[in-house]
């Protein structure tokens, strides 16, 4: 057992002064340059919640229109824009971002870290989200909102006459937000794996962290296929490349595959974090540790995997072979098992504890009752024969709202009631909470239960009106009344949050007597943990006596901020042994400028303003390089620093021990998934056509093989450069320069194949597919050039040395993926046509 | 077997072995029938061959999962200690990993069996 | 539909008739409760009129009973767990997870999955593409249905729109296509839906057990007037159907004066009437238009006034429709055309 620190009151006051000044949130308008997780998390959450209220109003508008048959309150076109935006905003601007918000806000405190490893990346994600969200939502006020459904099926959504600029706003606005989500996923994975308090082994992690780890992993595999789909889609809309145009060999079903490979995991991506909140709330109010910790891990990991085998159940009526449908039926039923386990883990915990039935529990239990109905109807529609009837009817509308509102919205509200004191130091009112709950619960069931019946009685979805003679009138009227009662409940909840609260007497950091680490934090201070504790229990506040006092007395790690920099601990993945004192980024304009510039790229593209697009792209590139140059891999003043408890840790580590290496690895896994989706597209077209090249010339074998060889050479040169740098050999610079030349040549050779064979991407889907894959690889080559050049410049500037070589190690890692991409690209494009012929 | 795989696989990744086997089996089944049904006209074997091959794949997958379950059971000390495995020791962390892996192997086993059910009932490429 | 007067008004009698017809004994009471107003009409998956719909309704009923039991048990457990005085040991609570959360669901789901997967080839059996049968080709267009009757060799016998006739007790084989965007063909009383996707041809076989008029709708969002894209299936006796197939291939009598006005105003550019100069292929075929029960793809009743109204301002009935408005024509011309169309057999 290590000996804890012991400081006199004067020393402690001085420490606190230094910590306070290091972690200070700037005042005035510079407040918005803050990158601290508690600010970013709060902004993120409030913004997502505001988007939810906006989308909810759209929902009410739709319900008002459907209150009576043949109603003409709003036009068909406005209705179609409203339901498209309702779905889009709820999924992309509320459900996913709210969990990112909660994660960014809570994770550092739960894990005992001062900050997530890349605070500026979180800030970048937030500004991207805000800009993209306003862009997408604002469109409805100009009558140009997307109107082809949140699923954007071509050819309706590629029809320029029907889906005008709205479709581009959807594609580009959301692609931008997807980038932000992937950034958040990287942040969360690295944070959970590497930034836990010492002693917090993986069997001690809070349940919330387990869920979030799995969810962030799912984002990494779920979002990239949609980004790949967006690229194909936008290429068709902007440049007439016929990916989904049947007359030129395209196929609208490819979009459906890519969309739902994203779309179904997405449901679990929003559901699991909400259940994760429940997994924090239930033990607190059962006054005991969770029963079945390992079962929760089974449920989270199992759901994470199985959720990728469900996507075709959104396509049961597209006429795929029955046996294909049946495989997806099987996985869709299997995923119910881990979901059932989760519910029974909560019941078991309550059975083994003494339950205090508070407002958070009320929302949690009510949500579970609703969600169970949604789960059971989910088991029903997972069977293809029943889905053939239920698909695209109000039965599905009922099912999905039972799942999402019961499984996600109610737990989120429970979480807000639970964590409100954590954020503000004050509780919300129990009386208001009960009123809000009953209004929401009754209103919800009144609003959505009748939809099961109207659906089975033949009412299809996405209709702006309906005839009066089929017995749907009463159901719809009741639904509308219920929806407004539900809205009244939400309004009550919002008022409860906004109304001024009476001053509370005394300081009570842990009003619910919870056992997890986050409740040691003082919301008045922006440093998070006063000192980073050693953890020996899953519920340290219950089982580690004096923990709170010791943390506040600065008796644990990092009690001071002598360096004047923001510091947090990095620990090992499995057993959480301290390995590094990580310096994270502080207050800065760079994330905001980069996000706004990148947003400018997407917005200018929407309107086909090419010059502003290029200008914004250049600003983005400069901002990001500036960000990296000044903010990452800084050579420290000393190799090791004192982290307290008589321990010294390195400030700078490189390779797999560093968080940057992990971030690169994780990003490239996501990137590889998007690439795999494009390759999937290539083979998809091969299966749908008897002769997928339709006699068109391919890129040949010569140029692709030349490009491949050059990419391999560039990759080897990068590796050589890394080794030479490690030995302090000046040949490193030469190798990097040669690598740049090889990459340039490789990119040109890659483009030469399709170019010299006269492949016209607008003529047929085959040349279009070849071009898009080649361009993907060449763009990655271009990024590789920037990285090689960056390393060269760092080397010249003395910012990358033999000892401090993080830059080139991360760049080499990038190049491993680059080489893999090049091998697949050129082997498939150059050789597969020969094999299949 | 014991000599090949270290007694305590010091990695987080063993947790994902069984679900990964499920994923490979699932994708194998899906890709095989998708390609077969799209290209049936140009292939000179019947659907029965595909079913049989996928049946074989199922057996292989189940065997792999059973192996993973056995290793997990061993890591869990053959059930010598009950959960919760929440002591701050390396031993409890390992036991926890073993137990969680065992549970995931069970789930993956069931999921693979489910995925094989269509092979019993559906004999053609009908839509 | 309303013009047919088949079931536009819900009468208690229908409930009694329907219940006695039901093949599921005790389930009928539940179905009736679900159908609430008593008759769930010609457009309900809960009022099956064909084998696929019956099988699926039965499947639903089984799942509904199981679902009610499971939900009640879970909610009861939740309430008990939050109210009870006794504190259970971690071991016994753990057993609840193992048995209620994992093993029991795994067994139930396995049985249910087997049932569902077995049902798939049972309700939609294998029919090779090259088998020589009569097929009905239905093409989804914004926002109506082009219907073509094909002979055994796959040649078009004749074309019609928005209404399909099938023989009772015999499988009707549909070939489903789309030209513009994705649509979905769904007749809830007879069976599940099947999408119509540009570039693909999807097969669907449906059968009606009893004579009647069943309503179908487009189930995939297809643009502005997706809500207004319905059709009618008439199930008639097989011999009557045979006779109709023959009769339909010979043009019926036409009112010459009406035809002249029809042609004079250019209607023939988009619409076809067999045996006349009107041969347009853009809009719905109007041969034998008079025998249809509804107008504008199941949107309006088939009366002369409504036909005239639709011709004058189609956009008012159906936003986004391709047909231009003809409100500028002399009122008499419109009336004549409407009368002519109403009488086309």
Automatic annotation (TrEMBL), chain A:
The entry's keywords: Cell membrane, Copper, Electron transport, Heme, Iron, Membrane, Metal-binding, Oxidoreductase, Respiratory chain, Translocase, Transmembrane, Transmembrane helix, Transport
Subcellular location: Cell membrane
Catalytic activity: 4 Fe(II)-[cytochrome c] + O2 + 8 H(+)(in) = 4 Fe(III)-[cytochrome c] + 2 H2O + 4 H(+)(out)
Main location per the UniProt record: membrane
A single cellular component GO annotation: plasma membrane
GO molecular function: cytochrome-c oxidase activity; heme binding; metal ion binding; oxidoreductase activity
Record-given protein name: cytochrome-c oxidase
Domain called Cytochrome oxidase subunit I profile: residue spans: 17-548
Matching SUPFAM superfamilies: Cytochrome c oxidase subunit I-like, Cytochrome c oxidase subunit III-like
Similarity remark: Belongs to the heme-copper respiratory oxidase family.
Pfam families in UniProt: COX1 (PF00115)
Topology relative to the membrane: Multi-pass membrane protein
Pathway the protein takes part in: Energy metabolism; oxidative phosphorylation
Ranges annotated as spanning the membrane: 40-62, 82-109, 121-142, 162-190, 210-233, 253-278, 290-311, 323-349, 361-384, 396-420, 432-454, 474-498, 584-603, 609-629, 659-685, 701-722, 734-756, 768-792, 813-835
Organism: Aliirhizobium smilacinae
UniProtKB/TrEMBL annotation, chain B:
Keywords: Membrane, Transmembrane, Transmembrane helix
Keyword Transmembrane tagged: yes
Keyword Membrane: yes
Annotated TM spans: 12-37, 49-73, 99-123
Protein name: Transmembrane protein
Species of provenance: Aliirhizobium smilacinae
């Amino acid at each position: 057992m290590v000996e804890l620190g012991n400081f006199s009151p004067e020393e402690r006051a001085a420490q606190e002064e230094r910590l306070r000044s290091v972690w200070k949130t700037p005042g005035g308008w510079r407040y918005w340059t803050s990158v601290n997780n508690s600010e970013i998390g709060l902004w993120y959450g409030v913004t997502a919640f505001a988007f939810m209220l906006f989308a909810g109003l759209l929902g009410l508008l739709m319900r008002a229109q459907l209150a009576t048959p043949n109603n003409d309150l709003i036009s068909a076109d406005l209705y179609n824009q409203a339901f498209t935006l309702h779905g889009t905003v709820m999924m992309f601007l509320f459900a996913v971002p709210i969990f990112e918000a909660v994660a960014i806000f809570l994770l550092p405190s739960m894990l005992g870290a001062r900050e997530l490893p890349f605070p500026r990346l979180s800030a970048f994600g937030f500004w991207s989200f805000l800009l993209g969200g306003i862009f997408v939502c604002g469109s409805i006020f100009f009558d140009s909102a997307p109107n082809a459904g949140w699923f954007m099926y071509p050819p309706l959504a590629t029809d320029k006459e029907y889906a005008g600029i709205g479709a581009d706003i959807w594609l580009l606005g959301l692609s931008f937000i997807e980038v932000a989500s992937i950034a958040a996923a990287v942040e969360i994975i690295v944070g959970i794996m590497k930034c836990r308090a010492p002693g917090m082994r993986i069997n001690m992690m809070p349940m919330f962290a387990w869920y979030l780890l799995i969810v962030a992993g799912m984002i990494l595999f779920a979002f990239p296929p949609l980004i790949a789909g967006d690229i194909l889609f936008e290429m068709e809309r902007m440049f007439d490349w016929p990916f989904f145009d049947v007359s030129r060999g395209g196929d609208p079903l490819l979009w459906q595959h890519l969309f739902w490979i994203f779309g179904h995991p997405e449901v679990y991506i929003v559901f699991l974090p909400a259940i994760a909140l429940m997994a924090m709330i239930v033990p607190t109010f059962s006054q005991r540790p969770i029963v079945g910790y390992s079962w929760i891990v089974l449920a989270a990991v199992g759901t994470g995997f199985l959720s990728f085998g469900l996507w075709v159940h959104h396509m049961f009526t597209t006429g795929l072979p029955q046996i294909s449908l049946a495989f997806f039926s099987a996985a869709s039923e299997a995923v119910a098992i881990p979901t059932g386990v989760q519910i029974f883990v909560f019941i078991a915990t309550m059975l083994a504890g003494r339950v205090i039935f508070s407002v958070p529990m009320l929302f949690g239990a009510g949500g579970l009752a609703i969600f169970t109905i949604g789960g059971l109807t989910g088991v029903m529609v997972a069977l293809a024969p029943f889905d053939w009837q239920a698909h695209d009817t109000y039965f599905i509308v009922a099912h999905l709202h039972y799942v999402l509102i019961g499984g996600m919205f109610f737990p989120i509200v429970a979480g807000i009631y639970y964590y409100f004191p954590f954020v503000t130091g004050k509780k919300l009112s129990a009386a208001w909470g009960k009123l809000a709950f009953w209004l929401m619960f009754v209103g919800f069931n009144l609003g959505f239960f009748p939809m099961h019946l109207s659906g089975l009685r033949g009412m299809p979805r996405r209709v702006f009106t309906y005839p009066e003679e089929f017995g749907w009138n009463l159901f719809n009227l009741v639904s509308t009344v219920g929806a407004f009662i539900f809205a009244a409940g939400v309004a009550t909840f919002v008022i409860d949050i906004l109304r001024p609260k009476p001053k509370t007497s005394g300081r009570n950091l842990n009003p619910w007597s919870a056992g997890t680490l986050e409740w040691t934090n003082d919301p008045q201070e922006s440093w998070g943990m006063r000192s980073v504790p050693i953890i020996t229990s899953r519920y340290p506040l219950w089982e580690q006596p004096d923990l709170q006092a010791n943390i506040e007395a600065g008796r644990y790690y990092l009690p001071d901020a002598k360096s004047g920099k923001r510091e947090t601990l990095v620990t090992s993945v499995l057993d959480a042994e301290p390995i590094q004192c990580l310096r994270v980024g502080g207050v800065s304009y760079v994330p905001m400028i980069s996000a706004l510039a990148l947003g400018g790229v997407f917005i200018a593209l929407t309107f086909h303003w090419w010059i502003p697009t290029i200008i914004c792209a250049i600003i983005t590139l400069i901002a990001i390089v500036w960000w990296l140059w000044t903010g990452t891999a800084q050579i420290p003043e000393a190799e090791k620093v004192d982290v307290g408890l008589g321990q010294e840790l390195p400030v700078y580590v490189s390779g797999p021990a560093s968080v940057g290496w992990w971030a690169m690895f994780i990003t490239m896994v996501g990137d590889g998934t998007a690439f795999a989706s494009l390759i999937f597209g290539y083979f998809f077209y091969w299966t749908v056509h008897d002769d997928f090249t339709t006699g068109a010339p391919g890129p040949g074998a010569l140029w692709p093989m030349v490009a491949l060889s050059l990419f391999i050479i560039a990759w080897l040169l990068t590796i050589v450069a890394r080794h030479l740098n490690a030995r302090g050999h000046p040949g490193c610079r030469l190798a990097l320069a040669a690598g740049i030349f090889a990459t340039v040549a490789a990119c040109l050779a890659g483009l030469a194949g399709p170019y010299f064979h006269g492949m016209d991407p607008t003529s047929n889907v085959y040349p279009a597919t070849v071009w898009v894959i080649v361009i993907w690889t060449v763009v990655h080559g271009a990024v590789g050039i920037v990285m090689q050049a960056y390393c060269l410049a760092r080397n010249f500037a003395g910012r990358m040395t033999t000892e401090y070589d993080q830059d080139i190690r991360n760049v080499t890692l990038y190049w491993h993926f680059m080489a893999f991409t090049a091998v697949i690209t050129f082997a498939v494009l150059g050789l597969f046509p020969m094999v299949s012929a | 077997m014991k000599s090949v795989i270290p007694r305590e696989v010091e990695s987080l990744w063993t947790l994902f072995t069984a679900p990964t086997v499920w994923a490979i089996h699932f994708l194998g089944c899906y890709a095989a029938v998708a390609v077969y049904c799209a290209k049936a006209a140009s292939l000179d074997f019947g659907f029965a061959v595909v079913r049989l091959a996928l049946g074989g794949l199922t057996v292989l997958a189940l065997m792999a999962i059973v192996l993973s379950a056995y290793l997990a059971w061993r890591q869990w000390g053959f059930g010598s200690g009950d959960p919760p495995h929440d002591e701050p020791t390396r031993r409890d962390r390992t036991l926890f990993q073993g137990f969680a892996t065992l549970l995931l192997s069970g789930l993956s086993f069931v999921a693979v069996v489910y995925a094989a059910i269509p092979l019993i009932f559906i004999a053609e490429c009908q839509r | 539909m309303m013009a047919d007067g088949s079931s536009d008004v819900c009468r208690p009698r229908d409930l009694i008739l329907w219940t006695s017809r039901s093949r599921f004994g005790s389930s009928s009471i539940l179905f009736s409760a679900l159908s609430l107003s008593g008759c769930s009409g010609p457009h309900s998956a809960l009022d099956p009129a064909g084998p696929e719909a019956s099988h699926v309704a039965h499947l639903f009923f089984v799942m509904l009973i199981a679902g009610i039991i499971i939900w009640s048990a879970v909610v009861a457990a939740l309430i008990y767990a939050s109210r009870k005085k006794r504190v259970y040991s971690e071991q016994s609570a753990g057993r609840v997870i193992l048995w209620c959360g994992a093993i029991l669901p795994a067994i139930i789901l396995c049985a249910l999955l087997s049932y569902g997967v077995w049902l798939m080839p049972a309700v939609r059996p294998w029919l090779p593409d090259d088998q020589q049968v009569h097929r009905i080709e239905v093409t989804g267009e914004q926002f109506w249905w082009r219907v073509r009757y094909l002979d055994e060799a796959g040649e078009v016998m004749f074309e019609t729109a928005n209404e399909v006739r099938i023989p009772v007790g015999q499988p009707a084989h549909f070939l489903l296509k789309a030209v513009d965007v994705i649509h979905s063909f769904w007749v809830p009383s007879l069976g599940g839906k099947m999408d119509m996707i540009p570039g693909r041809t999807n097969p669907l076989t449906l059968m009606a057990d009893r004579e009647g008029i069943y309503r179908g709708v487009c189930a995939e969002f297809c643009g502005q007037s997706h809500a207004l894209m319905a059709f009618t299936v008439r199930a008639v006796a097989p011999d009557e159907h045979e006779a109709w197939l023959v009769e339909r291939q010979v043009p019926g009598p036409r009112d010459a004066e009406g035809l002249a006005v029809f042609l004079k105003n250019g209607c023939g550019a988009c619409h076809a009437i067999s045996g006349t100069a009107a041969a347009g292929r853009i809009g719905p075929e109007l041969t034998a238009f008079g025998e249809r029960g509804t107008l504008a793809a199941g949107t309006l009743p088939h009366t002369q006034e409504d036909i005239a109204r639709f011709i004058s301002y189609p956009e008012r009935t159906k936003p986004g429709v391709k047909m231009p408005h003809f409100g500028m024509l002399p009122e008499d011309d419109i009336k004549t055309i409407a009368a002519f169309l109403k009488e086309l057999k």
